[in-house]
Write a structure and sequence with these properties.
Layout lengths: L9 H32 L3 H7 L1 H5 L17 H7 L14 H11 L21 H16 L8 H17 L4 H9 L4 H36 L3 H51 L1 E3 L9 E3 H4 L5 E3 L5 E2 L16 E5 L6 H13 L9 E6 L10 H9 L8 H10 L4 E6 L11 H7 L8 E6 L13 E5 L4 H14 L3 H14 L4 H7 L2 H15 L1
Parallel strand pairs: 5-8, 5-9, 6-7, 7-8
Antiparallel strand pairs: 1-2, 3-4, 3-9
Helix pairs in contact: 1-5, 1-6, 1-7, 1-8, 1-9, 6-7, 6-9, 10-12, 10-14, 16-17, 16-19
Length: 526
Amino acid sequence: MATGGLCITSEEKNYNKICHLLIGIGTNQIRSVFDRCCKMLSNSTAGLLQTNEQRLQTLRTSRSQKGGPPKIINDTQWRLMYPTPPAAANSEQFDITLLMILLRNICGLKSPNDHVWTRPPYSSDVSVEADLVRMREFRNKLQHMPGTTIKDSEFERLWFDISVVLVRLGAKQNDIDELKLVSMDPSETERHQQTLKQWKELDDELKDRLDRIDEKQDKALENDEDFRLILQKLMQSGMSLASDADSAHQKRDDQCLDAANKCGEELRQYYKEYLSNITQLPWWDGADKVKLDQVYVDLGLETKKEGISIQNQNLFSSREDCENPKRILIEADAGHGKSTLCKKLALDWAQKKIFDQFKLVFFLALRHLQGRQISLKDAFFESLLPEDSPINREDLWDFIKSHQSEVLFILDGLDEVHRDHLPVDVQTMLLGMILRNCKMIFTSRIIREKVPEDQYDTLLLIRPFKVKSLEEFVRLQFQSIGQTLYADSFLHQFNQIRPSSVDLLFLMQTPLNALLVCKNWLKMEN
């Protein structure tokens, strides 16, 4: 590879950028996953390491004796994990090879011997373990390339595949996009290549350790025909068990998919039954229910920074300020229609008008969860599904965890509850520590205690009614109660007064206020 002042080809640049993406941003995101595990399991890096020191010692075994097991953790890495004082341990000093060792062995993920670490993951599996394995496969692909060049077509495909995994692990798409545009320092690429090599050697050492165990077993049995026959039977049994395991895995997937399909149908039926008709002013004497579809007016969502208008059906579409929206916070003052918007989104999904990418949409007002000691799955079951529902909760929950991109949560009224009074599962979901790849919409009033920015990637505001939308809203309100003729009379009087009454126009820009004005005007007319 060309270095220093020599010119390098575009295909060499492609290789350099992939190295930077995989090792540069990749290391940061794997470290981020490790840090989250430390926080959840022991509150600190040092605490988790101290708790697991004995287990990690087994991976530090010296290879000095002939035929001894390979050393997985070297002395330099050990000193980084257990400095003086121990509390000084800092994951920022851990390279990607050490982070991968720790994640696999002490971070509460699946067992180090679980097949998930050795088999290519299913495309539907977006668990942390599966994405870590994908990172290893990307590394192997680079290691097995004949040279240090990547063709443009292969570069684009590989860049996209790695980016998808990194974003799921928590990387920001903007950082990835910026990296694609900058010129690469060849010396940095050489350092990343060395890291890839060390990472590969780590996996080879692990494989070597297993091979040595197999070799010792072979030597012990090679002169014993009875043992040989037993071993042959065990191998045949093992192949049968592996086939049975695959069959059981497929059966389990089918059970989870069936639970999701049934849940989707029940949710659609529930939303159509309970959200199609709403009472706009429950406290109003003689208030009647109206059809939501007949009175709903587009509220006019827009991004806070750029003021870009966003239609309901495009909430999760890629845009300039966010390549892959996952967690959307919608803010507005009281009376602007946040709760009505949530109901409309859930109803439109139920009627198959929008969000066809989601198999499941869970809509819940957070105030119903305040102070309740209840799990997340129980909260949604009890609130949205009938008590006698035949759906198996564990099957459904497993589907949600393994198909997160197909699940949307709509949580209304974040400002109406105290975070500490929410169920623990809901708190951790809002923090992105579980179900981080599910899509989420949550609403809040504009309050002093702002929602932390790391809890959402998109902030939208509900803008005030413009005159055209206001007139549409008024007409729909009168039509919904069979008083269509009154709409023209009301709007005529309103347009006469509007130029001289700034206060009236300001009042009518909020859906709740506009509705109250219409109700009172009609009451006086009658």
